[in-house]
From TrEMBL:
<feature type="transmembrane region" description="Helical">
    <location>
        <begin position="84"/>
        <end position="102"/>
    </location>
</feature>
<dbReference type="InterPro" id="IPR027417">
    <property type="entry name" value="P-loop_NTPase"/>
</dbReference>
<feature type="region of interest" description="Disordered">
    <location>
        <begin position="1"/>
        <end position="48"/>
    </location>
</feature>
<feature type="compositionally biased region" description="Basic and acidic residues">
    <location>
        <begin position="1"/>
        <end position="11"/>
    </location>
</feature>
<keyword id="KW-0812">Transmembrane</keyword>
<keyword id="KW-0472">Membrane</keyword>
<keyword id="KW-0067">ATP-binding</keyword>
<dbReference type="GO" id="GO:0005524">
    <property type="term" value="F:ATP binding"/>
</dbReference>
<protein>
    <submittedName>
        <fullName>ATP-binding protein</fullName>
    </submittedName>
</protein>
<keyword id="KW-1133">Transmembrane helix</keyword>
<feature type="compositionally biased region" description="Pro residues">
    <location>
        <begin position="27"/>
        <end position="43"/>
    </location>
</feature>
<keyword id="KW-0547">Nucleotide-binding</keyword>
Length: 710
């Protein structure tokens, strides 16, 4: 307490630590946001209901549908601003002049004739105070009527309404009208589908949870996914109703028990399944229906796969990979998707808490291991996947090339080893087998003879005959496998059952997986592992029992991953409700014969700013050409014959500095590239990209200039 009885403010919670004498006042810190950006608010149920009831009209592929206002396909013919404003001003002056001439009698008094014919004589020139007032009102009212008629005619001629809509109305920050409550039959917050199926009690419980602010967007999506399982017959109605009545909005939880991600960086709409990446630029090269709209991706677009090409620092990871991965993780929590995100350690692919499984290859603290054979028990399938990973980049890069010889070499060893040991060999053991270690091969032979495995003995004999012959691929396979047989990976790729290996066979479940590749010091090994994961992914999604679950592989850097088998695998993903997201620094990382097939197999193609002209040429070729209107303007000098004309032309030359000319405009239809290589290399601003889209139904959007920062 001070001497005057007041309390010293330095001891309050606002300033718990006294400042030193003479220290400057520190600015107040801004308040911490109540929630992460893009997350529907939790405390008040009205906010969630407003989000759920927001309009989401059908739109073209890639348009952010949340609150979208459709635009016409063609741009309306708008009058240029200068011509519009000038015409409105001239119309006003003409109307003012006409009214002034009428008022002053310069045009006569004929415009009073209608009043004289209609108005009775008793209404005109009345005596007395009341009559004079009536006469005054009659004549002034008629003058006002004529003035209004002139004003309406002038406004129509001068297009004042369009001037108001284009220049005046946008400057008024009018409060948007509140959204009207939907009809109960069409209200998504009433869960009418459940009521019609006889689950009225469950619907009432969900309505109460939403109104109390206990439901969020992931809960809504997860329960809708469970309800789709009931309608398809995978789950019973009684089980679903019992879970909802017991747990409310927390019913049908993800196996992890999580109901949301720790943080969100992008804007998501789980009703439509979209994630917003940015906004399309109001540019003449964009179709009018897309200009100024949000740009979003969803499973219906990712099902055709996405390829993003741009140099380092162009925003591939931050603006494309992580928002898409974040969206797929939310879909996994809702039971809609399974996602595998592959990238270098520390690449910014989200926190570990956002994933169920994090495989840190080369990190001794990693809880999970990676199954080298993809969880299969078939030696031939395991050999095909492993051969693609080890030497897929060495195969003939033409579309018909493959690695069947390498697959045969591995199958001749994997089959006998599994028959004897009941498992596949570890990396050191497989390397010894490929090198032809006599001790290990002799043990296999004896064990197979004792078991009477004649067919496998023939496989082993064939392998021993080929050892050391020219053209034998075992040495190449052993050299590539040596990149994984390093001390840093000694604890990984275990096949003895002592570790916790992750297998891509788990994509039958809504799992979230992140695989960190050891980029530093092990670049070649990282490329082998990336090819391994891609090969296992394409093989696993093809044999899934439940294809209603969308599966996606996000590969942050696909350098050295694109092979003939990889292109064929990507082409088959669309029919299996799966897709991939690939990024490249340049198309030079893909063999020249595979660039065309790769761009043809991918449905969504993105060229980021900073692209090289030769990369731009590949995109320009795959995007093709379109018919456009070309205007040729020709200025022809006018020659005057008469002395007066020559004098007038001389005066115009002095005033304008140019000779008098006549302009001729020729309009013709020409076929031009949608985006040329030069425009892609030099016309895309930083933070922007050109993106073409195709969904699984075959609908497509032409190349769009997109601001990834919007």
């Amino acid at each position: 307490m001070n001497s005057d009885g007041t309390r010293d403010a330095r001891g309050t919670h606002a300033n718990s630590v006294p400042r030193p004498a003479g220290s400057p006042e520190m600015p107040a810190m801004p308040p911490r946001p109540a929630r992460a950006p893009g997350t529907p608010p939790m405390p008040d149920g009205s906010s969630f209901l407003a989000w759920l009831r927001a309009p989401r009209p059908d739109a073209a592929p890639g348009v952010w549908r949340f609150g979208h206002t459709p635009r016409p396909d063609e741009e309306p013919d708008e009058i240029p601003k200068r011509q519009l404003v000038g015409g409105a001003l001239i119309a006003f002056l003409v109307g003012w002049l006409l009214w002034s001439l009428l008022q002053n009698g310069y045009l006569g008094y004929w415009w009073w004739i209608p009043l004289d014919l209609i108005a009775p004589d008793s209404w005109q020139g009345g005596t007395g105070e009341g009559g004079q007032v009536g006469t005054f009102l009659l004549y002034r009212g008629y003058e006002l009527l004529v003035a209004l008629m002139i004003l309406v005619a002038v406004a129509r001629l001068g297009r004042w309404g369009e001037v108001w809509r284009r220049f005046v109305a946008p400057r008024f920050h009018l409060r948007p009208a509140e959204q009207a409550a939907p009809v109960p039959q069409d209200d998504p917050a009433q869960w009418n589908q459940l009521r019609e199926a006889g689950a009225a009690e469950a619907a009432e419980r969900l309505v109460a949870e939403a109104g109390a602010g206990l439901m969020r967007d992931v809960d809504h999506a997860r329960i809708m996914r469970a309800w789709q399982g009931v309608r398809s017959g995978r789950h019973s109605l009684a089980t679903f109703t019992g879970a909802v009545l017991k747990d409310g909005a927390a019913a049908c939880l993800h196996p992890s028990g999580e109901r949301d991600l720790p943080t969100r960086l992008a804007r998501h709409d789980l009703v439509t399944g979209q994630v917003r990446l940015g906004g399309t630029v109001d540019d003449p090269r964009n179709p009018y229906a897309y200009r100024g709209t949000g740009l979003a991706l969803g499973p219906e677009l990712l099902g055709t796969s996405l390829l993003a090409v741009g140099p380092a620092g162009s925003g591939k990871t931050a603006s494309v990979v992580w928002p898409v991965a974040e969206s797929l993780c939310l879909h996994a929590l809702a039971g809609r998707a399974a996602v595998v995100v592959v990238g270098a350690a520390g690449a910014g692919l989200g926190p570990a808490d956002a994933y169920d499984v994090v495989v840190r290859i080369g990190n001794p603290e990693s809880v999970y291991d990676l199954d080298l054979y993809g969880g299969t028990t078939d030696p031939d399938e395991a050999a095909a996947v492993l051969a693609e990973a080890l030497v897929g980049d060495l195969a003939d890069p033409h579309p018909g090339g493959d690695s069947r010889r390498s697959t045969t070499v591995l199958a001749q060893l994997l089959g006998p080893f599994r028959a004897v040991h009941g498992r596949f060999p570890s990396v050191p053991q497989l390397r010894q087998l490929l090198d032809g270690a006599p001790g290990l091969l002799g043990e296999l032979r004896e064990a197979l003879q004792d078991a009477g495995q004649e067919s496998l003995l023939r496989e082993l004999d064939a392998r021993e005959r080929q050892l050391g012959h020219p053209g034998d691929l075992a040495g190449v396979l052993a050299d590539r496998l040596a990149l994984l047989d390093r001390p840093a990976f000694a604890a990984f790729f275990d096949t003895s059952g002592q570790s916790r290996p992750f297998s891509l066979r788990a994509l039958d479940h809504p799992v979230r997986v992140r695989i960190d590749l050891p980029e530093r010091g092990h670049a070649d090994a990282s490329r082998i592992l990336a090819r391994l994961v891609l090969a296992q992914f394409t093989a696993s999604v093809a044999v899934r029992e439940d294809r209603s679950l969308f599966a996606c592989l996000v590969l942050d850097d696909a350098t050295g991953v694109i092979t003939p088998d990889a292109v064929r695998g990507i082409q088959r993903l669309r029919s299996t409700n799966a897709g991939t997201v690939l990024t490249l620094r340049t198309l030079d990382d893909v063999p020249r014969p595979l660039r065309g097939p790769l761009l043809g197999a991918i449905g969504c193609r993105m060229a980021l700013s900073g692209l090289t002209p030769w990369d731009g040429q590949d995109f320009a070729e795959v995007w093709g050409k379109e018919w456009t209107e070309a205007r040729d303007v020709t200025d022809r000098q006018i020659i005057a014959d008469s002395p007066a004309g020559k004098a007038w032309h001389a005066l115009r030359r002095v005033m304008t500095g140019h000779a008098p000319t006549a302009r001729a405009v020729t309009v013709r239809q020409v076929e031009r590239e949608r985006w040329s290589a030069s425009e892609l290399a030099h016309g895309v601003p930083p933070g922007h990209a050109v993106l073409s889209l195709t969904n699984v139904r075959g609908e497509h959007a032409p190349p769009l200039l997109v601001d990834l920062r919007g």
